[in-house]
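Sorry, explain these tokens?

***
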Amino acid sequence: MIHALGLGRRGMGQCWPNPAVGCVIVRKNRIVGRGWTAPGGRPHAEPQALAMAKSAAEGATVYVTLEPCAHTGKTPPCASALIKARVARVVIAAGDPDPRVAGRGIAMLRDAGIDVTTGVCEDQANWDQAGFFLRVLKNRPWVTLKLASSFDGRIATATGESQWITGPAARHHVHADRLRHDAVMVGAGTARADDPSLTVRGFGAVRQPVRVVVSSSLDLPRKITLAKTAKQIPVWLVHGPASIDAASYWDGIGAKRLPVEATSPAKVLQALARAGLTRVYCEGGGQLAASLLQNGLVDELVGYTAGLALGSNGRPTLGALDIPELAKAARFNLVETRPIGADVLHRWRRSDYPA
């Protein structure tokens, strides 16, 4: 199952709106097939593993990180494919809460006489599927908030200079994290001030994440990099009331608009979930980051801290937060900390999640 989990993680950021699933087929203590959810979400992991195993799947044990699907969508149910292949046993890490599945896949397998074991490495699988589960159960994606700052929590000097506070190793790691998410999100202020490309670089030809900009009124410059590349790499704009001219411009260059009545963080995330996103990597700016934290919508914090200080007149990582008492501040549990080049990486998860 550990191998299947590792395979499933290869699909993270590549297969939304489907979950990133891994599958390993074993017969007589030998791996005869393996697969993971393909880019775009199809084929699923199980049929890919079965195609590799061929006739060796008969009588074999299948290890899969999520309950096999039981509904017919653009492809037949994976549970049916396993039954047709005449496998002997299926070991499942986590159940699927999607109402179209939710135990039906397990029931189909058992009704066909297949031995089913559940809950193997379930905690690890639940973490891997947290974005998919949040989208199904709470209508929002998993949110990772990335903050790269000086030792005293500043993202730029008083004059606005910010490139580069952290070193090349940290920046490379950021690109790896972008690759594991469905989308990279920034606020309109960051899009205006930094003119970012928000792409994954340094990993060859990969499926690029969606670039998301949150703008209250769609008042974005029309010559920014995101506009110039919108036809090549997806740009989504989540926005409030906008002029006809602005809407027409962004429509015309290939951007996707997701209008919401008010650009509250909850409504923004709901719009992204409806559009299929399961994992979002937020890179600021300070106001957007603060509003996500204020509303309890950050699931993971990733910090890159550099060994320099910029002082109180430097620009802070976060905008204002309404926190009159320490008890009202969101708490996160430390998951990982290690040197990364000349900087320090630290990763935290919400304290109401398992450590």
The chain has a mean pLDDT of 94. The CA atoms of residues 33 and 53 lie 4 Å apart. The longest helix spans residues 168-179.
